[in-house]
Structure formats: C-alpha cells, structure tokens
Amino acid sequence: MTQAGKNVFVASRLPKRAGVSGWVATLAPRTPRPVLNGLVVADLAIIGGGFAGLSAARRISRLDPSVRVAILEAGVVGEGPAGANSGFIIDLPHEVASDDFSGESEARFRQSVLIQRSAIALASEMAAENGWGKEVFDPCGRYSVAISAEGDRHLEDYAQQLTKMGEAHRLLNGREIAAVTGSPVYTSGLFMPGTIIVQPAAYIRAVADCLKEPVALYERTPALSFERLGTGWLVKTPQGSVQAAKIIMANNGHAESFGFFRGRLLHVFTYASLTEEFDPSRLDGERKWAATPALPMGTTVRRIGTAGGDRILVRSRYSYNPGIEISDAAIRRAGRLHDGKFSKRFPMLSGVGMQYRWAGAMALTRNHVPAFGEIERGVFAACGCNGLGASNATASGIAAAELALGHSSELGRIYARLAVPTALPPQPFTTIGAKMHLAYREWSAGPE
Ligand SMILES: Cc1cc2nc3c(=O)[nH]c(=O)nc-3n(C[C@H](O)[C@H](O)[C@H](O)COP(=O)(O)OP(=O)(O)OC[C@H]3O[C@@H](n4cnc5c(N)ncnc54)[C@H](O)[C@@H]3O)c2cc1C
C-alpha cells in the first residue's frame, strides 16, 4: 500500500459526476465555499469532502480547536457520493454473520456495531448542536423489507440474531408492513430503531457548513498532487497549494488514483432514481419511511413526504467500473430496472415518472476491511469503506483524525487491529470475477 521512497504523488484521474442527484436538485441552492487561490499554510490537509473527510475535520476540531485544517473537495459538497446516497446511516451490520453465531462472529458483530455507532454519535452530536430538523437528520429507524419467502426467512433469521445480541427490533407481517409502505407486495418487514435517516445532500452540506475557523473548506478544488516538503507535504491544486505537516486522504476509491492501494480496491457504482412529486392521497401508508431490502443486493426504497407532495426513491443495481466512471447509458439502463421495481411495488402510482436519475462510486475491498492507516509518513488514509459507507466512512474519518493527532480511543484500537485490504487477482480476472460475482448476487436477490 505504501510507496516508500516516493516523494511525489500525482492524481491520474479525478472524480466525475454521474447524473443529477435528486437530493441536490430538490434543495435550495447553496453557495459553495471558495476555490483555493494561492498558498495556504495548515497543520493538516484533508483530501475529499465526503463523510470521511468532513467527519475527520469535525473530530479534529473537537480534539484540538487550534489545529488549522484545509479541506480540498474536487467538486461541490453534496454532489459526490456522500450527498447522492440513499441516506441510511446504519448502526447494525446488514448480513447475518453465520448460522450458529459463534463467539468469533459475535465479536465481529459487536465490533461492527461499535464502529457504526461511533459514527452515529458524531453525527447526532452535530445535529443536536446545530438544531438540524428532521428533514435533514431523522433518528426514525429503518425497515428491512421482504418480497419473497426467502426474504421472509432471512428477516426471521436476522431477527433471531438480533434477539441474541440484545438489539431492539420488531418483526412485521405483510399486513403490518403494508400499513407502513402502502405497497401490497411486501410480505414482511423488520424494524430496527437505531438507523438515522438523512436527506444526504442536506446532511453533508450541513456538516460542511458547521465547520468553523481554523477549519477551511475549499470546493471545486481538486488535489492534483502532493510532494514532500521538509518534514511535511505540499498539496497542489489548479490555482493554489496547501503546505501542511500531515494529510488525510478521504477520497475513497480515488486514493488509488494517487497510486495507493493499487489492485486492492473494487470500484463499484450503484444507481438511484427519484420520482416526480405525486399527490399523497394516491398512496396509503405513512408519508415518510425508509426500507432496505431483506437480501443485501436487493432494492432500497424510501418515501419522502413534503408540503409540495411526495416522492419515492428507488436504489438498485451495482456495476463494477475499474476506471471509476460510468456512462449516461449505464444510468439509463439502471433506470429501466428502477422503473420495473417501482411499478411492481407501487401499481397505484402508475403514470408517476422518475424525475432524476444518478449513480455514485463506492470502493470495496475483498476482505471487507477499510483502506485505512498511515500509508506514508504523515499521510493517513480513511478510504475504501465497503457497505454501510455512510457510517463506516464517518467512523474511518474519526479514526484517521485520532491517529493523525495521536489521540487514543477504543475506536482507534479497533482500527489499529484491522487487516490490510487483500490484493485482487490480476486483470482480467478481477474484472471477470467482480462482474460474475455481482451478477450472481443480484440474481440471488431475486425479486427483493
Ligand atoms: C446511490 C447510492 C446510494 C447509497 N446509499 C447508501 C446508504 O443509504 N447508506 C450508506 O451507508 N451508504 C450508501 N452508499 C454508499 C456511500 O454513499 C459511500 O460509501 C460514501 O459516500 C463513502 O464516503 P466517503 O467519504 O468515503 O467517500 P465519498 O462520499 O465518495 O467522498 C469522497 C470525496 O472525495 C472527493 N475527491 C476525490 N478525489 C479528490 C481529489 N483528488 N481532490 C479532492 N477531492 C477529491 C470526491 O469528490 C468526493 O466528494 C450509497 C452510494 C450510492 C452511490
């Protein structure tokens, strides 16, 4: 992972937008923070203004408010994956670890919960401090919903594991989940109260906008390269540079664009569509709910009720794109799939069209560990956050901030014990394997 001896790291590519996120399009415009012009001297530079980068900045400012931080975000805050996701900040792992839930898998479960709840604690602290409303940050919990006998079984198994772990939950039968969703197709549901549901673009903007001096955020300011300068680093951007003792790389899969974790990150995109507004009387059930699928590769659905009308979000489909970019045609193809999922679940909304479609990049690792740690002297990575990226990337950002500042915590000790991401097979085997694996898992999710 490290490139010992190298003094200059140059970005071979920068993030590209993939469609127009409905979350951003339906918010009031926000004036981005300025582009970096000229030289700025800071204690720490953070590359990337998503969950990991902004959470790292927040944690640093709590640990030591005198630390000067310069955050460089290539695009506009909210327009990247952190603002384009489905908005679930989840506290519990998605998958049942094993049938018998042995001591080892129980320890893994508890560790995962501790990581995710550390993220939720940080987010909740900011929400309380800044008085964010429920339209931004809603601790309302989530449903996991089934649409098949296999999905029902999965939810029942998972509920049993949650009982063993002492985690609160409630199983709902078909009638009960229909009373929530208004959809006749769901056969059962599992409610888990610990998830935070956010309007992701509003949330990540709010996190950015509550950061105070001496934390400075520069938008539309990609880091193009960084090089050693004395005992620290000089990060170059199109119109300026940051001289800093330390760097936190919080640019997820684009860590690889600087040469780090090469051949160890799987660049996977997922896709979303958001309907136009519809008259709430057309759909029974509650006006606001959020549901992940019973099987992990299935379809996430949310209903968002606002004064102007309601909308449905559909998130489904994964694709492997090692170049970290996708075409408009890929978004259109996923959109056709979304239309089918939507009409199956909500036949009563026939004629309601999708107004926005988009996609976003995630970075996964083969052994499901983050790409984390000190990767060069004074350069720390908080990348490759796998599934549950909202909570995992937030936690990685916190842990990277603590590591950079030499602060010790339980979270930091967990991160210190994590394995490094394992190497992927050489090409073309990774591409073939990843595509087959995704196709198989999507097929296994069946109608879910
Ligand atoms: C449609 C969709 C739905 C999803 N739903 C969920 C969900 O409900 N819950 C969940 O937990 N996860 C979800 N995810 C995954 C989640 O959004 C990601 O895992 C998460 O955003 C990762 O956070 P991050 O901060 O590590 O990276 P990102 O959010 O990708 O942030 C990295 C930032 O780095 C910037 N950057 C890259 N290169 C540079 C550079 N050279 N210089 C400066 N800046 C740079 C990028 O512009 C970007 O803003 C979803 C993803 C998508 C696409």
From TrEMBL:
The keyword Oxidoreductase applies. GO terms for molecular function: oxidoreductase activity. Residues 43-403 form the FAD dependent oxidoreductase domain. Keywords: Oxidoreductase. Transmembrane segments: none annotated. One of its GO terms (cellular component) is cytoplasm. This is FAD-binding oxidoreductase. It comes from Rhizobium anhuiense.
